[in-house]
Amino acid sequence: MPETLSYQIDLICPIGADVRHIGEAQAQSKLRNIVIEARGLRDDNGNPLADTVAKHQKGSVVPILLDLRNRLDGQVIAPERALNEIASMHRSVLQNKEDGDRADLTTIYGGLTSVPYTFLTGVLLDDEGSIITYDWDRAQEKWRKIEGPGDGAQFHVDGVEAIGGVPEVVFATAFSYPIQDDDLATTFDLPSVRLTLDGMSSDARWSQQKQNRLAQEFLEVVKNLAGKGVMRLHLVLAAPNSVVFTFGRRYDTRNLPEIVVYHYQRGAPVAYPWGVSMPIAGLNDAKVVRDAEPVARADE
């Protein structure tokens, strides 16, 4: 090879590499990760989810903190105020998505809040495309991504066959721990349907594939109940935060019955003292329900 040609090739190669590096850097600079962290159960600030995401995701991190605790004493704020905070979080997410190309955006969610708040967050974020979900690993004391294959575990369904001609049903869904009949009896005087996961455990949550499949099983039972004339479900859900979020995201806001999701108060005279009626089935806004209000009939 002539010496001049060899020199030209040696000169061009570094320039080409530099151009590629600059192009990759420019592309990465456009990437944004909207990180939604919900706090409502933990006593301290712990490790911010945004810090964990920054170690694993390319691009900048835009943290959106949903803090449902009182800034003075750390206690969880009143449910009505919490709903306002959740609505404000949703507006922040929408605003951030308007500020850039959606193709450059990734949405990440993780949190620890009461079941009704987490389910509502999932309902509101249903239309935000693919979402990467994290959950707090109590054993390792760190945020952990929901990923990996499922294990084939299924829900055992009980009580659907006995439902007929009733507008409201208690839907007790046990993913991580049992739901006691005595607790249900403190709050509800309604027929009940149960879903119980094979091998209940809070460690059964770490597969998004599994969560999606179980959410579909959950929805198939809901559709069955709707076909039997059920108009409102009173959902008692014992599950980790990420599972509750996934179930909320999968709940069809247009074609399924009204649903009230309840907060569990261990050891209280009324085990499920309040719930949140979700903004679905023609209901524009979420609202707090403090007792089992009768369902509105179609002819009223």
TrEMBL record:
Protein name, per record: SAVED domain-containing protein
Originating species: Roseobacter insulae
Every SAVED-fused 2TM effector domain range: 20-83
InterPro entries: Saf_2TM (IPR041167), SAVED (IPR040836)
Domain of life: Bacteria
Domain SMODS-associated and fused to various effectors intervals: 96-278
